[in-house]
Amino acid sequence: MSVGLLSGRDAQTVLLCRKLGWTGQAERIIRMGQRILQYRKFMDEELLRLSKEQNVTEEEISRIKKEHLVQISLFQHERLVHLIVTVTFALLEMLAILLTVVSGELFPILLSGALLILLIPYVRHYYILENEVQKMYGQYDALCSLSMGNTAFRQRKL
Predict the structure, then answer these.
(1) Whole-angstrom distance, CA of residue 71 vs CA of residue 56
(2) What is the end-to-end Cα distance of the chain in Å, rounded?
(3) Which of 139, 90, 148, 145 is nearest to 119 (CA)?
(4) How many CB atoms lie within 10 A of CB 103?
(5) Is the pTM of this model over 0.70?
(6) Percent of the residues in the chain that have a pLDDT greater than 90, as a whole number
(7) Ramachandran class of 149: left when φ > 0, alpha when ψ lies in -120 to 50, beta otherwise
(8) DSSP assignment string, 75-89
(9) Within its chain, how far is the Cα of 63 from the centroid?
(10) What's the pLDDT at 155?
(11) H or E, element range at 48
């Protein structure tokens, strides 16, 4: 992944991870974050299109609902994995801080700093995953409203 194509904070994250020898991890996190944002925006546009069209078939809405459920399940799995990783790093960070307070040596301070550098991008990424999956639940509800012929959705702004 070219660092020049990323925004400031993402580019800094990639460069920092490369300096520390953690190649690939930051790029994977950033790609997944971009993917979930792009997919949700695509579904927002699709819902807007469906709400404006009058001759949308039940089969088309059903097909989109099935595809959306598959995407939601994939992102839910990603969210669960990152929750486990984030909680693990948070616990390790707390143990490293405790070790720093108890021992007062240099190594626990360095360990705590390294874990904090890893923890911050994971918390940010988990935040994105959690919020976007919640928004996708709302999109699915909107698709269900469309399939039931609910005209209130057609009049509502997305």
Answers:
(1) 22
(2) 33
(3) 90
(4) 11
(5) no
(6) 39
(7) left
(8) HHHHHHHHHHHHHHH
(9) 24
(10) 47
(11) helix 25-52
CA 110 to each of CA 11, 21, 62, 144: distance values in angstroms, whole numbers, following the listed order:
24, 16, 54, 52
Lookup: tokens for 4:
């020049």
Half-sphere exposure of 28 (CA within 13 A, CB side): 7
Alpha-carbon distances, residue 150 vs 68, 139, 142, 143 (angstroms):
19, 14, 9, 10
Contact 43, 136 (CB under 8 A): yes
Query: Residue for token digits 């995953």?
Result: 129
Residues in the chain: 158
Specify whether the CB–CB gap between 90 and 50 falls below 8 A.
Answer: no
Do 44 and 143 form a contact (C-beta atoms < 8 A)?
no
DSSP state of 5: G
Q: Which residue has the tokens 């909107």?
A: 142
CB 121 within 8 A of CB 26: yes
Low-confidence ranges of the chain (pLDDT < 50): 1-6, 151-158
